[in-house]
Specification:
With 528 residues, the chain is α/β, with parallel strands linked by helices. The chain has helices at 8-13, 28-45, 52-70, 75-88, 108-120, 124-150, 155-164, 166-171, 178-193, 197-210, 213-221, 230-254, 260-268, 273-287, 294-299, 301-321, 333-343, 348-365, 379-404, 418-423, 452-457, 475-488, 490-495; strands spanning 2-5, 411-413, 427-429, 440-444, 447-449, 462-464, 496-502, 513-519. It has a six-stranded mixed β-sheet.
Amino acid sequence: MEHAVVPPAWVDAHAPVATLLAPLHPHWPWWGAALLLLGLALRLARRGVPRQPLAVTFAALAATALAIACDGLVDDAYIQFRYAAHWAAGEGPVFNPGERLEGASGGLWMAVVAATSRLTGVSTGIVARLLSLLLTPATVLAAAAAAARLAPGAAVPVAVAWAALATPALYAATGLETASWAFALWLLAAGLAAARPGVAATGAALGAAVRPEALVLAALTLPTWRHLPRVGRAALATAVATQALVAGARFFYYGSPIPHAALVKGVTAAAGTPAGVRYLAAGLLEWWPLLLAIPVLWQQRRRFLPALLPVAGWTALVVLRGGDWMPGSRYLVPLLVLLTAALALTPPRRRLAAAGLLLALAAWRLAPLEQPGTGRPGDLWRAMATHRLQCRWWEALGQRLGRHLPPGTRIAVGPAGALPYASGLPTFDLYGLNTPVQRQGGVTPGHTLWGLPEAVEQGCTVIVPGRPVPQTEDVAALHAAAAALAAEVPALAEHYRPVVLVHPSPRRLDILRDILWVRRDRGEERPP
């Protein structure tokens, strides 16, 4: 087994997307500024309505600071960056040029990223991260606008509550469509609360064009048509029409009205209800103060029925299908929006208490602690930081493979985001989101397909499974991990040689080890 040492400085220098916000580090000042601004906003809220505009501004700035402190990034985001990059280059929204399979579900978001990249010449990864970060304060302002229409004095507590929530903060800078999805839902809420059909319809159209679950939400809202006011009917009709247009475009281009990724994660590779229950339980620990709005939803259930039915249905579907494996509650954004909006109608002391508790949770769970002592401070921040650092590693490795291997060389990867995006090489997705895969064998929710035997059969030049690689200094453990994978797929050991990549770093969260496999008959094409 070969070993290669990769200097940390080299990794930092070859991952421009993952290190985009690095010049703004350390994280502590941003985290502290966010908490201070949110505390000031709550203090102003207690002094009455005249100070609401200033307090809401503080909340919007705080949300941006907290987003920078979290510096969120996940490997899945790079899948969208790759689709958008091919789109911007004139090759269409595809993972591999010439292969029409929709393994990303960003919809309109990817189109905006591709168009912006084409116009500016900036890479899609950097464009997407900056655009999603810019949407963070806009979403807080939309939440405040909706709350102000729902109840006097509610704008600031609702704005603070949303700004302090972990999920929006964790995903604000990822470049995923999560930020645009939340903005669309709050725009819809603001339009409904103000009885402005144009605003509500715009929010509904944006949401329907960005996320596929909008189809489920719209379908579950249809039975309440008679209970909807005129503005609600306009929004629902716009959502349905937009979904029909998007589904038609998908069918025309991909041959399926539903993204392949949604089918894989929701059906083929669903992890099951036990995993979904764990996902919901983990979410509750993040946003449990929002449950203070439950009595209002129950007391005014007739009024909230058009929102309760679809949100409850979607939440149940998420639980039944197994939830997600990444930190935060990104699949439960509709539920978070509904509960936060309902806070506006709770008694003033209750909504202020909920906002204060969420602020305390942000201080505790988003504290940028790499090496904590006892307890759980900073657990959500560390979970996202681990993803970001892995992305940095895979992005640098992908860039190296792209420069080292001949154009057109086919690789196979488990982490199908940063590495393929940076390499620009044709790629086999081992988890089946972007490549048709038949076999089971994955271990995380939404990733239970495992196409390693198929990738070996196809003769991919380099394979980076991404698992199982123990992050340890124990060389014997690394050899054992490689041997276990070879035993799982005997043809792997027959045709490939393992190479251990060592990435020494004093930072505790850094990924330290990876194992890639190189075809024996391609010995001249050596890894970095």
